[in-house]
Amino acid sequence: MKTFTRLMIAGAVLGASGLAQAGATLDAIHKKGFIQCGVSDGIPGFSVPDKNGKQQGIDVDVCHAVAAAVFGDAGKVRFTPTNGKERLAALQSGEIDILSRSTTWTSSRDAGMGLVFTGVTYYDGAGFMVNKKLGVSSATELDGASICIQAGTTTELNTSDFFRSRGLKFTPITFDTSEETAKALQAGRCDVITADKSQLNAQRSQMTTPSDFVILPETISKEPMGPSVRRGDDEWFSIVRWTLFAMLNAEEAGVTSANVEAQAKATKNPDVARLLGADGEYGKDLKLPRDWVVQVVKQVGNYGEVFNRAFGPGTPLAIDRGLNNLWNNGGIQYAPPVR
Q: pTM score, two decimals?
């Protein structure tokens, strides 16, 4: 009788925490036939519409990759642009299935807002950008500056901490979108803008004269950014997480969009065979087809291909991979194995 009572209590706790709903997200996605993905309101490299209105960027490709894993079709995604204030609420409310929007993984977001991060797509840090006319070369010279900041971001607290810890003062001017902050700097409404350094590069690339602006050398925070999903659906969490891991493992193994099908048929490498479904049935654990990784890499690319398409030398941003290199190439990107 006591054992039965304990089981009843445990069941009630699981139900109250939402864990009893595990699998509901994937079921709903299969029913509607597409994944609803929350992206930014326009940050080059991460998510921004091209001249035809088609979303592109690393955050966009993450959602395409998940669609390729689930449906075998990377095109089965619809995008919801969100700003810094709206993004978390859009995921919490069920308006979107994934938030893939240059959002920093923090303890309060991961533990206190009903969502959970699945991995890191981009390691970054906050910094400052100024007009060269201001004549400063270090953030420590910004005492008394007016600083444009996007509301609802971790940058607000980062900036406050940086100035307070150094006994400096500043005047914050907040805007809802990154585009508005950049325009304010260009118009001379503030002395400085602050954001993640990748975003500062994107904002500078959109200025009328990018060479007029300089990003100061200081990096004042850690900003690991990646996709998040609603807490309580472990099945959906695992699918999104392992899609990112698959892209990283594919790059490490030299599996690309150009050779993935040939590798799946002829590889003699046991790790690659497991990754691509030629050996074992590891997709079954995720309720995915045996060839799900083949579809992800074939249709979207490995992590390196996605990164280069968004930030590489051939783009206006031309950002060095740095920390976002694989662990065996001087970076810290690292994925558990498929086995």
A: 0.89
